[in-house]
Amino acid sequence: MESENTKYVLDFVIPTGKMGATGSLGATGQVGPTGPTGPTALEDMIYVQYKDATASETFTIDTSTILPNNSPLYSISGKEIVINEVGNYEYTICGNIGENAYIGMQVIKQNGTAVNLLGVESKEKMILYSKTGLLRIDSKQNLRVLCILNQANTKVESMTIMVKRLPF
User: Fold this and answer.
1) pLDDT single digits (tens) 133-148
2) pLDDT for position 65
């Protein structure tokens, strides 16, 4: 059978008939190693509702919810959300912004410098606003939301922010 060009004829009959009885079950193999845990959609989060603003100021936190309840990832310090751990975060901020009002969100670094993340201004009428963005937090940092009212009798209402830590 060393030649590749040799042809062979196999002459046998495959028996047909009823299937025989099932044989006994073989031994169970060894348990393999545990695989890596897949990513989850959410780790920890904080949801903050702010008091309505009728003057230019840093928004005052009305209520906050941190999930899970025992999470060390977030805390509140005065009017700011404290993010205690390095990581990637997603935020969503929304609310009703009155005419000639400006909303800004800032990250306050440990050295006290403020970095503006976003700003939105309503020039003509009340607008419903929502924005989602991503943050890379390199050290413990604070978040604050600012309100600047450029006209009397205007206000910002129903401002909320939700910050979620991403699993990557």
Assistant:
1) 999 998 999 999 999 9
2) 95
Contact between 61 and 79 (Cβ < 8 Å): yes
Cα 120 to Cα 51: distance, rounded to the nearest angstrom: 18
Question: Which percentage of the chain shows pLDDT scores above 90?
Answer: 47
Distances (CA, A) of 131 to 9, 18, 47, 91, 158: 75, 69, 15, 8, 14
Residue 49 amino acid letter: Q
**Rounded to an integer, what is the distance from CA 23 to the centroid of its chain?**
53
Closest Cα partner for 132 from 166, 101, 100?
166
Best-predicted range by mean pLDDT (9-13, 32-36, 73-77): 73-77
Structure-token pair, residue 140: 């413990």
List of residues 6+ apart from 57 with CB closer than 8 A: 146, 147
- The Cα 75–Cα 77 span in angstroms is 7
Nearest to 94, CA basis, from 43, 50, 141 = 50
Whole-model pTM: value is 0.72
Q: Which helix (H) or strand (E) holds 145?
A: strand 141-149
For residues 45 and 74, give the distance between their C-alpha atoms in angstroms, rounded to a whole number. Answer: 8
